[in-house]
Amino acid sequence: MSGIVSGCTKSGEKFQLLVTNAHIPSSGI
Fold first, then answer.
1. Residues 21 and 1: beta-carbon distance below 8 Å
2. CA-based Rg of the chain, rounded to a whole angstrom?
C-alpha cells in the first residue's frame, strides 16, 4: 500500500503523510 494520507489531528492541525508499504490504522483518520 502506497500513497499520500492527509487529514487532521485531534488538535486540529493539518498533517500529510507519505506512506509506502506501511500499515495504517483506520482509527483517527
1. yes
2. 10
Q: What contacts 24, CB < 8 A, 6 or more positions away?
A: 1, 5
- Say what the pTM is: 0.21
pLDDT in tens, the chain (29 residues): 456 666 656 666 666 665 555 555 655 55
Sequential DSSP letters for 1-29: -EEEEEEE-TTS-EEEEEEES----STT-
Q: Are 16 and 5 in contact (CB under 8 A)?
A: yes
CA angle 4, 6, 11 (to 5 degrees): 150
